[in-house]
TrEMBL record:
Coiled coil: none annotated. InterPro entries: HPF1. This is Uncharacterized protein. Belongs to the HPF1 family. One of its GO terms (molecular function) is histone binding. Keywords: Chromosome, Nucleus. It is found in: Chromosome; Nucleus. GO terms for biological process: DNA damage response. It comes from the Eukaryota.
Length: 329
C-alpha cells in the first residue's frame, strides 16, 4: 500500500501539481469499502457529495485519455490556481464544492476549503483534513435525514477515523484564525495570500489604494465595460508593476488573483499579473494552471466541475494523449 501511495504521490505532483496527505488516500479507501464498483459515488446517497478532481484518477483504472492538462479535471470556473477541487456537492444546484488549498505547487495541501456558490468565487475554511469536509457534510445533512441508515454508517466510519488518529473537528473560526495568522493580505476569494515578507525591510507586499470591497466594485464596473473603471484597473496594474521592481511580489499576486476571480472579462489582465508574480515567487506551476484554466474556459460550466478525461477515444474526438496511471494497489 505504501509503495502504491508513493507512486501516486509522484504522479499527482507531476501531473496535477498537487501534494496530498494520507487523508486523501484514506478517504478513497473508505469510499472503496462502501462502493467498490463506483467509489466516486460512495457518499452520494448519504452525504450528497461526489469525489472528483484527483480522486477520479485513482478510480480510473490503468490509463486515461485527455486533450487538456490533467490538473483541470474537476475544477470550477472561478477556482483560483491554489485550489484543487476534490468534492462536488451534488445536493446543491449552485455548484457548491470542496477543495484542497496550498499556496505553492510543491507544498502539501494545508487546508480544506468550501465554495458555497461557484458563481461567486468565494471560499470558507472547513478544516485541515478531508475527513473534516465529510464531517462538515454530515453535520449539514443530519438535520435533513435524521435516522437514515446509510448516513449513520458513514457518520460512524468518519468518527472512527477521527478518533483513531486523534483528529479533532475544528471550528470554522479556529481554522480561519490559523489561516489569518499566515496570510499577508486578504483576497476577494476570502483565501488570502501567503508570500515571504521581511518585516525589518518592509519588503514582500505593499497595499494598493484599492482593496477589498472598493476593488470589487471597480472590478464589477470594469467587467461591465465601464471605461473609467477599466482605467482605474490599469492604474492598479502600473502600481503593482512598480511594486515588483521593488521586491513586493505579493502585490501583483493579490491583484492578479482578485482579477482572476472576476471571471473571463479581466482574465487577460489577471494572467499578466500572475505570470510575473508566480515566476518571482518560484510558483511557476500555478501559472500553468491559471493559463490552462483560461485557455480552456469554454469547457467550464458555471455550476459544474469541468471534465477533461475519457477512458477510451473515438475517431471523431480531438486528438488525445494517453496517460498511464500508477497501480491502484
Amino acid at each position: 500500500m505504501e509503495e502504491a501511495r508513493a507512486a501516486w504521490d509522484a504522479w499527482l505532483l507531476k501531473n496535477c501539481f498537487l501534494r496530498v496527505n494520507r487523508d486523501f488516500y484514506d478517504v478513497f479507501e473508505l469510499a472503496s469499502s462502501i462502493n467498490s464498483k463506483s467509489p466516486l459515488e460512495a457518499f452520494q446517497d448519504s452525504l450528497r457529495v461526489r469525489l472528483c478532481g484527483p480522486f477520479e484518477y485513482l478510480a480510473a483504472g490503468q490509463k486515461v485519455y485527455s486533450n487538456k492538462p490533467l490538473f483541470l479535471q474537476g475544477r470550477f470556473s472561478l477556482d483560483p490556481p491554489e485550489v484543487s477541487t476534490v468534492l462536488a456537492d451534488t445536493g446543491a444546484t449552485n455548484g457548491a464544492h470542496y477543495g484542497l488549498l496550498r499556496d505553492a505547487p510543491d507544498q502539501h495541501a494545508t487546508y480544506v476549503v468550501r465554495s458555497p456558490d461557484a458563481a461567486k468565487g468565494q471560499f470558507e475554511f472547513v478544516g485541515t483534513n478531508l475527513f473534516h469536509a465529510l464531517q462538515h457534510k454530515v453535520q449539514s445533512t443530519s438535520s435533513l435525514d435524521d435516522g437514515d441508515a446509510k448516513l449513520s454508517d458513514v457518520k460512524d466510519a468518519i468518527t472512527s477515523y477521527l478518533e483513531a488518529y486523534r483528529i479533532r473537528m475544528p471550528t470554522e473560526n479556529a481554522v480561519k484564525s490559523k489561516r489569518d495568522a499566515e496570510t499577508i493580505a486578504a483576497s476577494l476569494s476570502c483565501l488570502g495570500i501567503v508570500v515571504p515578507y521581511d518585516e525589518k525591510k518592509v519588503r514582500g507586499y505593499r497595499e494598493l489604494p484599492l482593496v477589498g470591497q472598493d476593488l470589487q466594485d471597480v472590478i464589477t464596473r470594469a467587467s461591465d465595460g465601464d471605461k473609467t473603471a477599466k482605467k482605474t484597473i490599469n492604474e492598479m496594474i502600473t502600481r503593482a508593476t512598480i511594486a515588483n521592481d521593488e521586491c513586493d511580489f505579493g502585490t501583483s499576486l493579490l491583484l492578479g488573483l482578485d482579477l482572476f476571480s472576476a471571471g473571463a472579462a479581466l482574465r487577460k489582465e489577471a494572467l499578466k499579473q500572475l505570470c510575473v508574480a508566480y515566476a518571482l515567487l518560484r510558483r511557476g506551476n500555478l501559472y500553468k494552471i491559471a493559463h490552462a484554466h483560461q485557455a480552456h474556459s469554454a469547457a467550464f460550466h458555471p455550476a459544474a466541475p469541468v471534465s477533461c478525461i475519457s477512458h477510451h477515444v473515438t475517431d471523431d474526438e480531438p486528438k488525445c494523449t494517453e496517460f498511464v496511471l500508477p497501480n491502484p494497489n
